[in-house]
UniProtKB/TrEMBL annotation:
Matches recorded under PANTHER family: ANK_REP_REGION DOMAIN-CONTAINING PROTEIN, ANKYRIN REPEAT, PH AND SEC7 DOMAIN CONTAINING PROTEIN SECG-RELATED
UniProt-recorded name of the protein: Uncharacterized protein
Origin superkingdom: Eukaryota
Organism: Trichogramma kaykai
Pfam families reported in the protein's UniProt record: Ank_2 (PF12796)
InterPro entries according to UniProt: Ankyrin_rpt, Ankyrin_rpt-contain_sf
ANK-type repeats, residues: 142-174, 176-208, 251-283
Keyword terms: ANK repeat, Repeat
Amino acid sequence: MFFTQPEISLSEGLERLTSLLENINWENGADRLELLRRLDPLIIMRKAVKQLYDLRDIFQRDNVERLLEDSLFVVNDMDQRIRFVRFVSRSGYKDEPDIDEAGKPLLNRATPIHGAHRSSLPGKVTIIQELFQMYDANYDDDGLTHLHVACEYGFQDVVERIFMLGVDPNLLPEQMDATPLQLAMRFGHVDLTELLLINGADPNLANRRGMTPLHVACETDWEAYKALTRFFIVSEDLGQRVNMEARTLETGRTPLHLAILGGNEEVAPLLLIRGAHPNSADAKGLTPLHCICMSERNVNLFRVFRTISRQKGWVVPLDPLDNELRTPLQWAVACLAPNIIDSLLIAGALLSNFAYPDRSFFNECFESSLTGEPAEINLKMAFGLLGVIEALDIEGYDPKLSDVLTIMSLFAERNLFDNSLLEAHNWYDDEEFVKVAKKIMMYCEEEDENSYNLSFFDLIQLPTKKAAQKLMYPYSCCDQCRDQFWSSANMGKLPEASIEFCARYFCDKIARTFFRQMTVECFYQLVRPVLMLDCCEEIVDKLPVKDCLQYLKMKKVVYFLKTNSHNNPEKKKIFHRT
């Protein structure tokens, strides 16, 4: 080390510090970096005797900022970086802005606070907090002010100091996309939200995208409910009316839309109670009910939404059409939300004019709602589709052939009917796989009660029909259960090479269960009276699922020819020949 003594006197330390500055070229980055390196041991020793230097007596302001920036962005040692910033902060160093000819401070420049904020430095919150002890003025760098930075990190004492300088709380420079109040609410700083409102922050001021503080809070999970509760109370006390129906410029969404789409079960009811309209449609014609139906996790929110609407005397249509003429029920089906389907139909949604979503609509919803590894996504899709069919069937909807073909095509386009990989590998005989699979207990449905009564390994040994029955319930019934299946099966614990095989195995079993009955009927109609129905069942049970799809497509062609042959003699010939 440069020094070996554990402690030195103030005068000796000052003398050594001064000696380090001799012959330094402040324009040379290497010289400054060497100075920081040689300063660090001295800083450690000064900390030991708890005496600090007034750097204003030693350094010019420009040189202090150069060293601060070098310590932040050149020094690699995080501890050394924080030591130097803290040393400067606690030495009593204070920045003093330059003054123009009129005697006003010049505030348009970048400071180390701006640089640290825009960086990805480890421990940058601590660093910025220390830097704010040196800077009181509200410097502005390309629209980003110290007030904006302080509001993002929740530094209430800093905001109070800035307000003492007469700074406008509604700062929204052209380059910025958020007001100080929006930043405080986005990051859940409840007390700071109140401070800003009391000091004149506009609760309805929107950014360039039309986002108000209310919109911003509804997009976040960071103490959003607490921040909004305080926001409403303080605004009310100040006599400021909050616009509950403010809309974003591009999407036309209200705060209620954003709260529901974010799955915020606390905030959405709060907005309804405060007067948010339950039937407001966005630019795509989507109402809050449409948004609720986009996720199975919104089952409780659906009930609360209905309850509050009834209490307030609002009439909420259950079958509104968006700009694509899609109802909430169709959204629930496409987003694989069987419990939402059940709730909608019990509440009175109509099945009489229900049209099954097409493949493109399903895929559009899958992109936003299904997340995870490819094998996990495929399993969730398989269980979800099965759950949707079950939910519609319980309420009396009989799937059409076109519906079945749509679902089968979703499996086919993901190549889930190609079991050549399963047939080519004895993946279930792998020693590591068997060892892990026998320890994983599955949650399966039994006649008397639900229990963990079957190992993962035992499950894959069952005959197709029996295995499918085990998988049918409860995993198909809700999004949480599908996630639970994935975690209860502990796929991540299985050998990586076998995970894809497992996903294909389960998808095959689920698809086979659903498509079997209609395939048997189609096959029987194609071959009768040559074969009896029970023979057809045996044959179909042994068919690959991709062959079942072909038989269903054949039936669709036959049905088309049959229903159109009376007006076209040529078609009639083709039908008879078929």
